[in-house]
Amino acid sequence: MRVVLRALLADARGHKLQTLVTLLGVAVGVAVIVAIHLASEASLEHFRGTFDSVAGRATHELNGAAPLSTERLPELLREPGVIAAQPVVSRLAVAPARADRPARALRVLGLDPFLAAPFLEFSSAARAQIGSARLFERLLLEHDLLLAPGEVLADLGLPDEGGALDLRVGSTTRRVRLARLDGSGLARSDPPVLLTDLATAQQLAGLDTGLTRYDLILDPDAPPPQLAAGERLARPARRGERADSMTAAFRTNLLCLGFLAVLVGAFLAFNMAQFAVTRRRAMLGRLRCLGCSAKALQRAVLVEAALLGLAGSVFGVALGRALAGTLVGDVARTVSTLYGRVDPPGVSLDALTATAALLVGVGATVAASWGPARSAARTPPVLVAGGVVRDPLPHRALAPLLCVFAALLLCVPQSAVVLPSIAVLAILLATATAMPHLLRRLLEHPPRQLVAALAAGRLERSLARTGAAAGALAMPLAMTVALLVMVGSFRGEVVAWAEAVLGGDLYVQPLEQELAAESLRLSPALLDAMAAHPQVETVDTLRLIERATDSGELLIGGSELEAVRRRGTMRVLQGGPLSDVLTALDAGAALISEPLAQRRGLAPGDSLRLPGRDGERELTVAAVFQDFSFDRGYVLLAARTHIELFGETGVRNAAALLRPGADPEVVRDALMAAHPEVLVRTVAKLRDDVLRAFNDTFAITYVLQGISTALALVGILTALLCLHLERRHELGVLRALGARTRAIGGLLLVEAGALMFVAELVALPVGLGLAWILVAVVNTRSFGWSFPMAIDFGAVSGLLGMALVAGLLAGLVPWLLTRRGTISQLLETRR
Amino acid sequence: MSPRRVARCASLRKVYGSGDTAVAALDGVDVELFAGEFVALTGPSGSGKSTLLHLLGAMDTPSEGLIEVDGQSLTGLDDEAASRFRCERLGFVFQFFHLMPSLSAWENVALPARFAGAERAESEARSREGLARVGLPALAERFPDQMSGGQQQRVAIARALINDPALVLADEPTGNLDHVAGAEVLELLAELGAERGSAVLVATHDPAVTAAATRAIRLVDGKLDTDDEPAR
Ligand SMILES: Nc1ncnc2c1ncn2[C@@H]1O[C@H](COP(=O)(O)OP(=O)(O)OP(=O)(O)O)[C@@H](O)[C@H]1O
Ligand SMILES: [Mg+2]
Question: Which of A452, A720, B114, B149 is the most buried (most CB within 10 A)?
Answer without folding.
Answer: A720
